[in-house]
Amino acid sequence: MKKLKTKLKEKIENFYLMEGDDYELFSRGYNMILRSANINLPDFNLVKFDEDNYSMQAVIDACQVMPMGDEYRVVILKNIEKISENDKKMLQNYLKNPVLTSILIIFDFFNKFSSFKNDTSFVDCNRFDKATLSAVVVSELKKKNKQISGEALDTLIDYCNGYLTRIITQLDKLVYYNIDDTLITKNIVDKLVTKDSEIVIYELTEALGQRKADKALKILDALKKEQGILGLIVNHFRRLFFISISDLPDKELASLLGVKEYAITKQRAQVKNFSKMQLKKIYALLEEVDYSIKSGAMLQENALYYLGLSILYI
Predict the structure, then answer these.
(1) DSSP state at residue 116
(2) Alpha-carbon span 95 to 225, nearest angstrom
(3) Do the beta carbons of residue 238 and residue 283 sit within 8 Å?
(4) CA dist 140 to 22, 77, 144, 191, 270, Å?
(5) Residues 9-45: pLDDT tens digits?
(6) Which pLDDT score is estimated for 75?
(7) Which of 16, 41, 110, 205 is deepest in the core (most CB within 10 A)?
């Protein structure tokens, strides 16, 4: 975001590609570009495309229209899950000779336009590192005349899995919990902020890997009514298994498994809790349980306990 802010002061580009896993950063980057473009007549000079109205030809056509009453016309393409090779060729041809008064912004949450990184001003919207994220949170709270203790800040970031998107949604609750006290404490964060599901699965995996049966069963108790939680557990251990047997770097492995690089990097630290043979057995167990649930032979709640207890003794 700092790089984007600096570059926008120097020059506005005709094409911005935004990729990453933290949607709040997409929004912030987009707003920075929009402010720099100074669009006063959005009805004429701001055009949006998504899955409902997308065609690459329509996007290109929109870029080729001259702005009306403003210096620039902004065209936004948001989160397209499927693009064809012909779409890529059309975009490539347009970028060879773009309309200088048009700004094309692509929100590429699904990484479908990664091959264009070298043809554009690339905006990295992956989660901030902890130091940057901490500074942003402190700054946001300062605007509301609030402070946060170091312990509370660490807990908030951890519970939200490092996503600024989730943190922003939690701040109002934290700010207005006690309007007479300017300091947000860990106790307040514990009361008001629900842990991200990925964090809960991570904690469960740690407990299972370290053979902490009481903690593992306590987490399973809390999860048993959650919809889709078994799928998250299956995917988590599936990634652990592939991390353990692969020599690929995190970025390539993330692409292969269809997840963000951050997820692979974070899980790599957990692999040490299991041997390759254990993970292979767990992977086979997960497939067995998944089949049992889909065939109606086992209920999800029973499957969770069966999985947990089985993994503890593999």
Answers:
(1) G
(2) 50
(3) yes
(4) 17, 28, 7, 20, 33
(5) 999 999 999 999 899 999 999 999 999 999 999 999 9
(6) 98
(7) 16
Q: Which of 248, 230, 249 is nearest to 238 (CA)?
A: 230
Q: What is the pLDDT of residue 298?
A: 85
CB 103 within 8 A of CB 74: yes
Sign, CA dihedral 221-226-228-229, equals negative
Identify which of 250, 218, 229 has the alpha carbon closest to the alpha carbon of residue 300: 229
**pLDDT given at position 112:** 92
The alpha carbon torsion through 206, 210, 211, 216 (nearest 10 deg) reads: -20
Tokens matching residue 278:
């254990």
Single-letter residue type at 118: N
Three-class DSSP category at 103? strand
Contact 80, 105 (CB under 8 A): no
User: Mean pLDDT across the chain, nearest whole number?
Assistant: 91
Torsion of CA 259, 264, 270, 273, to 10 degrees: 90
Alpha-carbon distance 97 to 307, whole Å? 57
Per-residue pLDDT, averaged over 56-77, amounts to 97
Tally of helices (H runs) and strands (E runs) in the chain:
16, 7
Residue 284 structure tokens: 């086979």
User: Cα-Cα-Cα-Cα dihedral of 198, 199, 205, 208, to 10°?
Assistant: -140
